[in-house]
Structure formats: C-alpha cells, structure tokens
Amino acid sequence: MFSKLSNKNYFARKTLESLHAEGARQEGGLKKALGWASLLSLGIGAIIGAGIFVLTGTAAAKYAGPGIMISFLLSGLACTFVALCYAELASLIPVSGSTYTYTYVALGEIFAWFIGWNLVLEYAAGAATVAVGWAGYFNRVSQGLGFSLPPQLTSGYFSYLSSHGSSTGGIFNLPAAGIILVLTGILVRGTTESTRFNNIIVAIKTTVVLLVIFFGANYINQDNWTPLIPENTGEFGVYGWSGVARGASVVFFAYIGFDAVSTAAQEAHTPQRDVPIGILGSLVICTILYVAVAAVATGVVNYKELGVPDPIALVMDHTGKPWVSWVVKIGALAGLTTAILVLLFGQTRVFYSMAHDGLLPQIFAKLHKDYHTPATSQILIGVCAALAAGLLPIDILDEMVSIGTLAAFSVVCVAVIYLRRKFPDMHRPFRAPGLPLIPILGILFCLALMVALPWETWVRLLVWTAFGFAIYFFYGVHHAKRS
Hints:
Blueprint (H helix, E strand, L loop, with lengths): L1 H5 L9 H9 L11 H12 L2 H15 L3 H25 L6 H8 L2 H36 L29 H16 L1 H26 L23 H12 L19 H30 L10 H7 L4 H35 L18 H17 L2 H29 L14 H15 L3 H25 L4
C-alpha cells in the first residue's frame, strides 16, 4: 500500500486550458442560469445574516463601543483585499468549485484537498451557525404570537459546553435543524428556483435594513457616541484601540459569504463579468449597510446595553414603535434564511467539483436527471448541517467556521501571486490591483486572525483535517483524475 502511495503525484496541478475547456462543456451539466444581478443578490443574501442582526451588539458591548463602526470598516477593508483576489481568480477560472479549484491550479492536488475539505467545514458549519441564530429570532417571534416550543426543543444537547459545564436541559434545537432541511429541499429543486426564492427574500431583507437605518436615525442621541472609542480597561481587547481591533476580528464573521458567489461561476451567464460584480458589489453594499446600522444602534442605545441576542430589535424597541420592532424581527428571519441558503448552495458545489475530479465518490458528482442539481451531496450536507445545528451551541460552530474560512482566504491570496508569476500573459478579464501588496496584506490579516483563535479551535481543525486526509489517502489519491 505504501509503495503505491509513494508513486502518486500529490502535487499534480490542473491546467488553465483544461479548466476553460471543462467550463465550455455545458451540455448535460450545471445550467447557466445566473446573471450578475442574481450573483449580486446571492452575495448580499450570504453576507447579511448573523453579523448585522447578532454580532453588531455583542462586539459593541464587549469590545469596541461606538467604535464598532470603525471595526466594520477595518473588517470590510481586510475582506476587500481577499475579495479582489477572489474576483481575479473567479474571472480567470470560471468553473464551479471556488477556492478548491483555484488551489488545484496554483498549488496542486494535496493542497486542493486540504482547502476543499476545509471549505466543507466553512459552509456546512456556517449554515449550522446561522441556523442557530435564526432559531433564536424564530423563538422570539413565536413567543410574541402567544405560542412557543418546549425549551428542550430550542437548544442543543451539547449547549452545556458554552454554559460553564452545566447543562441547559436542551435535547435538540428543532427550529435550527428544521430550517436547514426546508432550504435543502428548495436547493434540490434547482438553481433557478432557489435563486428566485433568494432574490425575493433579499429584497425584503434589504428594505427592512434600510428602514432600520432611516427610521432609527431620527432617534439617535449623539451623546451615546461619546467617547467614540471608550477608554481601555487595562485588558487587551476590551475597549480602546485594541478593542476596536478585536471587534474587527469578531465581526469578520459578518462578511463570510461573499466567496460563495465564486462557487457559482460555472452557472453564470458571463462569469468573467458577472462574478467580479457579484463579489465586489455585494461586499461594498454590505459594508455600507453594516456601518450605517452600527451607527444607528450605538446612537439610539448605549453600547453597554447591546449585548443581547437581538440587538437590532432592542434598538427599535427604544423608538417606542412596536410595529417597527416586529418588522425588524421578520427582516432578521429573512436575512438569516438567505444566509443559510447560500452557504448550503456553495458547499455542495465544492463537493461536486471534488467528486468530478475523482477525489470523492462519483455519486456526489451525479446530477439529478430532472433538476440538474447535485442532489445527493445537497441532501447529505443538509442532513449533516441540520444535525450540527440541532446539537451544538453557536460559539463552537462559529469558531469552526472562522478557522476554516481564514485558511481558505489566505490560500486564495497565495494562488493569485503564483498564477500572476507563472502565467503573466494570460488574459484576465479582471485584474486585482497592487500586486503583490494586496494579496500579501490579505495573507497577513488572515494569519493574524487564525493565530488569535483559541487553542481548542486548532485542535478541532487538526482532528477534522486528519479525518479528511484519511479519506484522501484511502480513496481520493487512488481515484484522482490527473492529466
């Protein structure tokens, strides 16, 4: 066995020519059903979710104070470095698979497996994370309507892990698991149907966010913004400029999702034009909305009061207009719904690409005969994500998402540098400016945030990676389709 493994080419790379030819062979494959407007909506739907409706309050109350506005700008700037790299690669390599495919071209098979496996972690755990947040808003809305589920069915069995070792009494978070299964069913039906559903909810959600901004602005007390950056308590990361920096790290999760647009490149009408518009456009729009909502939140309510699960609803309650609070809660549900939808969408496209390359069993590359979607992988990931959302607390899920995402983001920046040097004359419909400075800044920022994560998160990453490489060495390495 080991002699067979030693003969394998773990660093085999895909060529750009083969990928362009692969993208041109569309008959019987994924349908080209997405235009730039759908991709822009897809990106906004993925980004606006847990960040704007949950993390804004936590980061302001615990770390940054009103300086959370600066934190969002810093995170948005950092994501811009990565997004510029994503946009170049997505236009250069317009096939399904995102970071996984880019890594296959730039660094080779074994690195592509590592990134693809961590993207499975990012998207699946991300969907579970947002689903747990969705369940919190759902439970609050249902209580307001006079009915509620038993507490045993509104928190996960392992919730004690985030409650100082004492059990919360939860058995299974039924709303969190349920929303994932419902959206999985929608995605199995097909890309066109799911993006139409997404477009409708994104329009509703964005309207609600704008309502919060323009309606809430009338109730801002500018004294709440003084001081803009509260004095540091003596502990690193608790207010002061270090608190603003830590706040930027916390709300970085709020930007996860723009990369999901690139996973749909093979389904775009004109990927060289549409994908960069989808990535950069959604990032710019969401950064503006985030900063504006943060300004309203910290202006209407003292930042120390914002550390609650539904901070934006709390802000609207302070306006004395109950109907606004209700609209915000419904808008939060819409926002979290679209975020889950896009994360589930992106993950199965990575699975599809890995199976198409032989690294996973071919059943995951098989498309449904009627819907032309990777239904098998969609159902498998949906069930796994539903179980995670039903059993695990949000903090563990969040940490798992962060480390997988940051690893993928840093590799994207490396891939841009490599491909620019290896193929300097290759036509690039979109070119990231300022090379090599922009990707280097992206790499440094991602690595710094990874180092800042708790050691337990690194242990979970190592366990997940070991499990993934076991699959690679026992299956993928023997079935990979190498040129």
